[in-house]
């Protein structure tokens, strides 16, 4: 079976998890980006990224490829923004054929409140079977990340 990991990451937490998964699952890995990057100041990032996420906007993205069609399964990774998926993921999932291939998601939050994000994803992904909630290194849940990633790999087989 051919598997791809597609992820978005602003500050590279999701990137690190995606790379670990890619190695353990022997899956190809792709990063998507916002065509218009968020502002560089943290406060403006929170405001603009939060706004895009809250309203489930679909900003233009780069890194999307026709090659995604060749995969049997897609594993999707993203940060939690304002309790929802980061906005580039909304754009990616407007491709219904791609969304149908997503069987697993990993989400990365600051404080461990990934539940709302996963709930939004469940509504959009008919074939979603597995999800994990990872958290920043400053969070009290951060120590659980490696264990969760290992379990995720085992469940995916
Ligand atoms: C615009 C924005 C909104 C965020 N909203 C939340 C949030 O609602 N809840 C939370 O726990 N963390 C929130 N965070 C923190 C990120 O989810 C967290 O830092 C994550 O690990 C970042 O992943 P990344 O390094 O792959 O970008 C937010 C970060 C940004 C930039």
Outline of this structure?
This protein is an alpha/beta fold and 157 residues long.
3D architecture notes:
The protein has one domain (3-156): Rossmann fold. The model has no long low-confidence stretch (mean pLDDT 96). With 157 residues, it is an alpha/beta fold. It has helices at 13-25, 42-54, 87-92, 96-101, 115-124, 145-156, and strands at 3-7, 28-31, 33-34, 61-62, 73-81, 84-85, 102-109, 130-135. The structure holds flavin mononucleotide. Flavin mononucleotide (FMN) is lined by residues 9-14, 45-46, 49-50, 79-83, 108-111, 113, 136.
From the 3D coordinates, which CATH architecture would you assign? 3-Layer(aba) Sandwich
Total strands: 8
Distance between the termini: 11 Å
Bound molecules: flavin mononucleotide
Mean pLDDT: 96
Structural class: alpha/beta
CATH uppermost class:
Alpha Beta
Question: What secondary-structure arrangement, pairings included, does this model have?
Answer:
Layout: E1 3-7, H1 13-25, E2 28-31, E3 33-34, H2 42-54, E4 61-62, E5 73-81, E6 84-85, H3 87-92, H4 96-101, E7 102-109, H5 115-124, E8 130-135, H6 145-156
Parallel strand pairs: 1-2, 1-5, 5-7, 7-8
Antiparallel strand pairs: 3-4, 5-6
Bound molecules: flavin mononucleotide (FMN).
Name its key features.
single chain, about 160 residues, alpha/beta, Rossmann fold, six-stranded mixed beta sheet, two-stranded antiparallel ribbon, 6 helices, globular, binds flavin mononucleotide
